[in-house]
Design a protein that fits this description.
By secondary structure, the chain is mainly alpha-helical. The protein folds into 2 domains: 70 residues, Homeodomain-like (Arc Repressor Mutant, subunit A), CATH 1.10.10.60; 136 residues, Orthogonal Bundle (Tetracycline Repressor, domain 2), CATH 1.10.357. Helices cover 67% and strands 4% of the residues. The protein has a two-stranded antiparallel ribbon with strand order 1-2.
């Protein structure tokens, strides 16, 4: 059996199993656990979520769960890390696109209303949980905000060099762009779904504002 794999016996109950057991790589199993963890945290909040419920809903043993994540904070960190690309799609290859289209792709203007609602639901949950549990703030920064800011800063630096723009502080501009996009991307009423086109129009205007401030005239 390949290293880093989990064997799942096909069939159920006491019936006869046919064929060889199905082998699921640990990476896929771990990704599934992270997705289940996301759902449980959204439904229960950090304090009320339990590793036992995550294991049960993921249909794995607690032993397997703790092999992936030694504790609940580690699972929460993995959920934040997996979620960050849903906010800004970085790293990624956008060098072939005009700057406005590249930033639109990074800001994910193309997603639908339901996916947008889901990603902002996790942001709102993380914000409120960090107020109740200050120890989670460092987790959100280390596994979400800071890596995204680093990736965007690096991309802006490379793009500016390729286009021969002079920008004085890429890190500061990256922070401004994140503030614009995350703020404009939120629905007007938290928890409510708005038409996808309204969100796209608002985000496109935010990108225009950003570019008008940094591009050479």
């Amino acid at each position: 059996m390949p290293e880093g794999s989990v064997t799942i016996a096909e069939g159920s109950g006491g019936g006869r199993r046919r064929g060889r057991p199905k082998v699921v790589p640990d990476e896929r199993r771990r990704d599934h656990v992270v997705e289940i963890g996301r759902l449980v945290f959204l439904e229960r909040g950090f304090a009320s979520a339990t590793m036992g419920e995550v294991a049960a809903r993921a249909r794995i043993s607690k032993q397997t769960l703790y092999r992936f994540f030694p504790n609940k904070p580690a699972l929460f960190a993995a959920v934040v890390e997996a979620h960050r690309r849903s906010m800004l799609a970085l790293p990624g290859d956008y060098d072939h696109l005009p700057i406005a289209e590249a930033l639109a792709a990074i800001a994910r203007l193309d997603i639908g209303a339901e996916e947008d609602r889901e990603r902002h639901a996790l942001v709102e949950m993380a914000f409120h949980e960090s107020l109740a549990h200050p120890e989670l703030r460092s987790t959100i920064l280390a596994h979400g905000v800071d890596p995204t800011h680093h990736d965007l800063t690096h991309w802006l630096e490379r793009r500016a060099a390729a286009e021969r723009w002079e920008i004085d502080d890429p890190a500061d501009l990256a922070r401004i762009f994140m503030d614009l996009i995350f703020g404009a991307g939120r629905p007007p009423i938290p928890g409510e779904t708005e038409p996808a086109e309204a969100r796209r129009r608002r985000l496109a205007r935010s990108i225009d504002v950003f570019l008008n401030g940094i591009l050479p005239r």
